[in-house]
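Me: I hope this is not a bother. Any chance you could explain this protein sequence and its structure tokens? It all follows right here:
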Amino acid sequence: MAKPLKIVKCSTTPFEGQKPGTSGLRKKVKVFKQENYTENFVQCTLSAMGNKLKGSLLAVGGDGRFYVKDAVQKIIKICAANKVKKLIVAQNGIMSTPAVSCVIRKKGCDGGIILTASHNPGGENEDFGIKFNISNGGPAPDGATNMIYELTKSIKEYSICPDLECDISKIGVNDYIVEGDPFCVEVVDSVEDYLELMKEIFDFNAIRQHISGGFKILINCMHGVTGPYAKRIFINELGAQESSVVNGVPLEDFGGHHPDPNLTYAADLVKAMEQGDFDLGAAFDIFQDRNMILGKKAFFVCPSDSLAVLANNLECIPYFKKTGVKGYARSMPTAGAVDRVAEVTGKKSYETPTGWKYFGNLMDAGLLSLCGEESFGTGSDHIREKDGIWAVLAWLSVIANTNLSVEDLLTQHWVKFGRNFFTRYDYENCESDPCNKMMAELEAAIGNKSLVNKSFSSGDKSYVVSNMDNFEYVDPVDQSIATKQSLVNKSFSSGDKSYVVSNMDNFEYVDPVDQSIATKQGIRILFEDGSRIVLRLSGTGSSGATVRLYIDSYENNPDKVKQPAQEILKPLIDIALNITKMKDYTGRDKPTVIT
């Protein structure tokens, strides 16, 4: 019989700044290791579940970074003291984010706690994070994270079972009695349930045959959580060579590298692909949800194009033959390539704020099958998280069915639909105050546009706002200008290109399912030719400010669609840097990363 365990109430005081960002709380490890810091946030996360907490079933997994194992032990002890009935815990605490989403949905969990700091560096002096996923398997919505934050500001005590010991290195069931109530911790193989789901979605035989026919792949796991999944799926199941998976051992510091799958931080994959020995290359971030796709000789697939190509070829995937295609979605900063596929296929395409939780609502309502973000995230309604391995299997399915190369698929797509040339400039770890001032200045340049197209009624009369502006006067005699800040209708030139601003706004999203509103999601400068400049501060960093500048311009001339993106976009990039005064505010001559 299990030994009875006591619940201890520990007094505590609030910590400032425990506000979850885009998806969870992210801080330096040394912050989380402060006495009561992790305990406070875990307790508030559980308390936010309200009456669903007692008797609940929760999943727990992390990306393998430093402090994951310690945090898992604390979570187990706090969950036991809060009368959670059962935890499904990944062996050694390591489970990818899409796999946790899979387990939550498959096992009918009430939610899950995921230990990750996104694609931020790991190690004793680097980053750690905690986020909560709800019962649909997706990130907690704004209402839930706001409640967690409010609780962190007033917490006075947390509950814990200090004497509970659980060996998470061994797969099996561990039963306990906590002051008369049963409590169970089931330690599971992190890959098994996810592998079964992938086999239900894709035709593994077709992919295996294509690989056995000489199609060579190179998978770079960047020493994150993906290694065990990649080896089981691509080598054991699909027959790729052992050497096809590199950097496949999860390390607590990710080998000292920045585990973000882009051309800068996955430079070793780019270099290997440039040799021409492999037909498809892929890199994953440390928790397996982001992916970068490269073709032969390091032909780069922009994430916006990756989403669009998959949307145009979903019939190659058995899952969509069974479920049908309900609709597409992209985050607002993502180029509109998938919108053009939607127009041809007769499907709805949704534009949402950045953050996978916004896609989840559409999926739960049966409105969405495929979605993606420009930050190398792609996924479908099989789970409620972005899924890197799913994306690579989807590409392999399309290639196996069409027998086309990665580059040929892109080229044919651009000829048919035109090309949204796209780039993103990241300025990482900048000083926060100047960056906030930059955003405020651009916000002021917008003017208050929030009422445009709104209808107002009084009695039997209704009025619709057609426009709002900050009055600008051009003197007809000397052409002097009296203005506050407006950029609308202004013309900007660089080289032989000129662009006229047609509108500016700070993106606002009204959820079509629950009518919730997300405001201030990124400043957009829209031009008459359809080009866009988007600027936002990222919510994924653990300190300082990360500024993201997005440039998007459409071209349908078949003679131009294969030209280098940076070459086509250079005039607009120069204009964007000028309008935003990026160098002045960030103090940087160039971005940290160019995508």
Summary: The mean pLDDT is 90. The first strand starts at residue 4 and ends at 5. The CA atoms of residues 57 and 107 lie 9 Å apart. The two ends are 58 Å apart (CA to CA).
